[in-house]
Amino acid sequence: MSASIEYSVIGDISFDSLEEVNAEIARISGDYEWYIEPAILIESSGSLTGASKLFRLFDEDGEELDPADESPKVMSDIKHLIDVLTDFSARKNISWELAIEGTPIGNLAGNGPDEILTQTLGEMATAFGGAFETEVEVPVQETKQKKPWWKFW
Q1: Domain segments of the chain: what residues?
Q2: Where are the alpha helices (DSSP H) in 54-143?
Q3: Quick check: pTM over 0.90?
């Protein structure tokens, strides 16, 4: 089973319908083609949460995939997910806690990832080696340091 990145709103959020929330997330995401799973939110105890798998394990023919070959696509999905959640955060004035398989990796808000998440994502990118050599254009989101957050990777 593939690991997942999980994202949960910190605190409560008011919303009219879950369908409207997910439609807004899809609009923010635009025409980006997700490699694994798009950001989809569910309601949980008056708040919002979601999870997206990080890796495919097998191709369409059932052949096992090499994670090293998937890394650039996975990091592209993670970058886009961070941008989508940051944009949604700015619109709704909320913050998110992110985790991988239940282990917290940091928070983000409308101004981007916090220092802990930035460091964690940088470590992931280093471990994946060359993960940012993709052809996907990612809009600039600024952090407190006034640099695009992926420049810290």
Answers
A1: 4-152
A2: 67-92, 115-128
A3: no
